[in-house]
Design goal:
heterodimer; A: 161 residues; alpha+beta; Ubiquitin-like (UB roll); DNA polymerase, domain 1; 2 domains; 6 helices; 5 strands; 14% strand; B: 293 residues; Uridine Diphospho-n-acetylenolpyruvylglucosamine Reductase, domain 2; Uridine Diphospho-n-acetylenolpyruvylglucosamine Reductase, domain 3; Enolase-like, domain 1; five-stranded antiparallel β-sheet; four-stranded antiparallel β-sheet; 11 helices; 14 strands
């Protein structure tokens, strides 16, 4: 089946089987390896990407054909290299990762969370990230990173007003 | 793992969806949020030959207050309910469930109507539907019919929705101001199946005796169960600690759980009674009442 969707701002035309899961279309056809495959059972959240700018979805639990006409944002799409997104920068500075396997999804879930709630409390961050598993960090530094990014982003937003 | 191959269709309206279902018979399944169906397909527990995607039905994402009910369309996501001020302020039981069903990411995709149709024995929404006396509107090529929760929920993973039919909206009665409710769930981790859970909704008379009671339990039998004997005990009575004990015992009595990594059957049977008791206490607290000794 031929589908057209936007991935990280670019229009993509893909040919997929209906059964192709979005995460495999992103990884194997778009070459975006940020969305990982972890648990194979929709439990771990490491495949999380953002649909239409603010909806986090587990890309292993959505068919690629369902993304037709929609926009997908992956961790590669929010920043990189010298232009890190405040979340990417904060995960780096707060050491919000160890092995890094869950990190792209932690960042994308946080990215969506901050759209819905720009100034979350620690409890709200923990609640919002409770669908994402990390087996290394104990979550402390992840929560700190999201907090730092939220502060930086709201200051930037204020400065722009 | 990858799902088995299937043919994929998009429906733009319930009429189109029902026509596609009728054409493909028992091989076809509706794809709504897909948060249970897609994992089941990945494990090859489900291998539908045809999927009818209803996420393209633009007019089905509605929450409407209408004639004493809330009408919830077939593509309303759990987060639409979780983030709704109306639900938070007036539909306590629904609000509670919308904060604990699955996990926060899954809730952005999962739908209430789809979850009810999936009818998992550990489902949260099915227990809430039973306690809240909600009903389901089912559409086929001839028209629509409405079924109560008791008639809709048939067996494990089985509802009264037949071949060539789809559930198009849930009808959720608007609770009166004298109604308190609570959903109590124990889970090992966010997103896991409940170890056990209980839905409680109590409507009180002016003298604080119980006018109507809804008590349902889940994850402790082959399907979510309404605890009719407990509701009978409560009706017309003022709530005391002794009455709560008796009500909890009725829930434990009809629970028939299996032992697994979440707990032994004995433990789950006991704990589901505790959850019902906690649900009653919290329902009353939310009405500003305390249980008398």
């Amino acid at each position: 089946m031929d589908i057209t969707l936007k991935v990280n701002g670019q229009e993509k035309k893909l040919n997929v089987e209906p059964r192709t899961l979005l995460v495999y279309a992103l990884r194997e056809q778009c070459g975006l390896k940020g969305a990982h495959v972890g648990c194979d059972s929709s439990s771990c959240g490491v495949c999380t990407v953002v649909l239409d700018g603010k909806t986090p979805v587990k890309s292993c639990t959505m068919f690629a054909v369902q993304a037709e006409g929609h926009e997908i944002t992956t961790v590669e799409g929010i920043g990189g290299g010298a232009n890190l997104h405040p979340l990417q920068k904060a995960f780096h500075e707060q050491h919000g990762l160890q092995c890094g396997y869950c990190t792209p999804a932690m960042i994308m879930t946080s990215y969506a969370l901050l759209q819905h709630n720009p100034k979350p409390t620690e409890d709200e961050i923990r609640f919002g990230l409770s669908g994402n598993l990390c087996r290394c960090t104990g979550y402390m530094n992840i929560v700190k990173a999201v907090k730092q990014a939220a502060e930086e982003m709201s200051q930037t937003a204020q400065a722009a007003d | 793992m990858f799902p088995a191959s299937f043919d994929y269709y998009r429906a733009n309206s319930p009429e189109e969806a029902v026509a596609l279902l009728a054409e493909h018979g028992s091989d076809a399944r509706i794809l709504a949020g897909g948060q249970s169906l897609i994992p089941a397909m990945r494990y090859r527990l489900a291998q539908p030959a045809v999927l009818v995607d209803i996420n393209t039905m633009k007019d089905s994402n509605y929450i409407i207050q209408d004639n004493g009910h809330l009408r919830i369309g077939s593509t309303v996501r759990d987060t639409d309910l979780e983030f709704s001020e109306l639900i938070r302020s007036k539909f306590q039981l629904m609000s509670d469930v919308s904060n604990v069903v699955a996990d926060p990411i899954v809730r952005f995709r999962g739908t209430l109507v789809g979850s009810l149709c999936h009818n998992d024995p550990s489902g949260d929404w099915t227990a809430a539907m039973l306690a809240a006396r909600a009903s389901m509107v089912i559409q086929n090529g001839q028209g629509k019919r409405t079924l109560s929760a008791d008639d809709f929920i048939v067996d494990s993973f089985t509802t009264a929705v037949e071949e060539g039919e789809m559930a198009v909206e849930a009808l959720w009665p608007t609770p009166s101001a004298r109604t308190g409710a609570s959903y109590q769930k124990i889970e090992r981790k966010v997103g896991d199946y409940a170890t056990a859970a209980a839905a409680v909704q109590l409507e009180l008379n002016e003298d604080n005796s119980v006018k109507e009671a809804g008590i349902a339990i889940t994850a402790v039998s082959y399907v979510a169960l309404r605890v009719a004997e407990a509701e009978k005990l409560l009706r017309g009575q003022k709530i005391s600690r002794e009455l709560i004990k008796a009500v909890a015992a009725e829930a434990s009595a009809i629970a028939d759980p299996t032992s697994d990594g979440r707990g032994s059957a004995e433990y789950k049977k006991e704990v589901v009674g505790v959850l019902v008791a906690r649900g009653i206490v919290q329902s009353l607290e939310r009405l500003g009442l305390k249980v008398e000794a």
